[in-house]
Amino acid sequence: MAESLSLSMIVEEAKKKFYRGRMVTTLITLLLAFAIGSETAVILPTAWKYLQTLGSRDETDLGVLVSAFNVATLISSIFFGWLVDRWMHLCKRVMFIGALAQVVGSAMYFLGIHKWFVISGRFICGFGSGTLTVILAELARATSNEERAKFFTLSFSVHQLGIILGPAYNLALHDVNSWFGYIQVNEESLPGLVFAIFWSLAMVVILVAYENIGEQYIALQKLIAAAKEYEIVRYGTFLRSPSDDARDLAEHSTPNSMMNQKDSKAKSIDSVHSSTPSEKKVRNENAPYYRLEDSEEAASWMDLLIDTIVVILFMQTTLFFCQCLVETIIPPTMQTYYGLGTQANSFFYLLIGCEAIMSYGFVIVMENRLLDRTLILMGNSLVVIALISLMITTRFQESHPHQAFPFFMVSCSLVFLGVPMSSVSSLTLGSKLVRPNSQGKMQALRRVGNSVGLILGPLWAGAMVYDHLILYGVTLALFLIQFSVLMLSYSRMVPNE
């Protein structure tokens, strides 16, 4: 009885330590996600002017700068995802290396020796931002199915908040113009210095307080499993119902340090392995917990390409394709048809950014009331309605601009309500359909899908911005295809328990 009580105390202490560590690590990752979102929003508005001061006269250089960041992010996301799946204990080191890359890239951007030096700095920053894949993979490993949507939504929300608040930093830096030795410090170069300092501090925080919470989660699963086996063999019965035990196992995790304490009970637990054949048979038939050892090997890239995952990845591409398309057509449409300029655009972007955060909040509130696939369906329906409304509105915006303007705003707003809802819900569902030791690859594939949409959306919008029927018609057709494959796989989009 004393041994059982002592083992139970070890498990409870492990849970407490894990939850404390997970809270601290989650706060760190949310801060980093906010910084990555802010960095993009701060640098992009002034990047072209900065390149011009360095001798650039070709707008292609701005495209190269933006593309360099995105390409590096894509490469590092795949590499980091594969790395943390294969060697899970390297997550902290990968986060540290990512922060170091951000420091180097931001410092290069600040120095601004030559336009290619600045572009190279953004490429290195993009490599560092690939740690978002590690963040999401770790959150997926360290949370239960019930709480995962909340953690993912918080991560997306703070990233979006960083994008919204980014332009406010430019207002604060607007009047800065001085010299630091031979280096000019102004509105264009100062963001590099600010983020170099931030990421330097982030490196210290990661080194001191960041923990590999995904690995700790798996350690506690094994500890709880061993404790339950010991109780089953010792008493020959369950103290609680199997469903309660399974739920408890799914919702908890532990630090690796507690595994050392578990080893101190080896003699007691060894009795499990030396039990009689009849006891083993009862244990194997009735044990109510998931055995991690049954799936130690991480899935290969091809193993992840099952129909439900492919649908989710395709959905990520179409969602971000549509979002970037609408973001791109807003300025020329507002100027050409409604006579509005940059200030109106800024307020409109602020409005739709706030709507995106509201959509994330809705997901958090409804996560325990609605299934992930239901939220996905709702978000996709809003986007389809918005695209149809935009097609109709554009038929009247030349002849009746004042009457068409409210419908244009509402249609764009529906897109930014539906896309966040579907994207975060599909991300949550995808993480539930793969094993814990394949989360890095899953997040890397998701990032690939996002990047394709982020690249193709603006290109399509820029080419067809004034050919409305083709612009929205093709996008709507793409969404209807996605909607169809979603319905075909809808019944199989059930999380693994």
UniProtKB/TrEMBL annotation:
Protein's name in the database: Major facilitator superfamily (MFS) profile domain-containing protein
SUPFAM superfamilies: MFS general substrate transporter
Boundaries of every Major facilitator superfamily (MFS) profile domain copy: 25-492
Transmembrane among keywords: yes
Record keywords: Membrane, Transmembrane, Transmembrane helix
GO molecular function, one term: transmembrane transporter activity
Entry GO terms, CC: membrane
Cell compartment(s), UniProt: Membrane
Species of the source: Darwinula stevensoni
Annotated coiled-coil segments of the chain: none
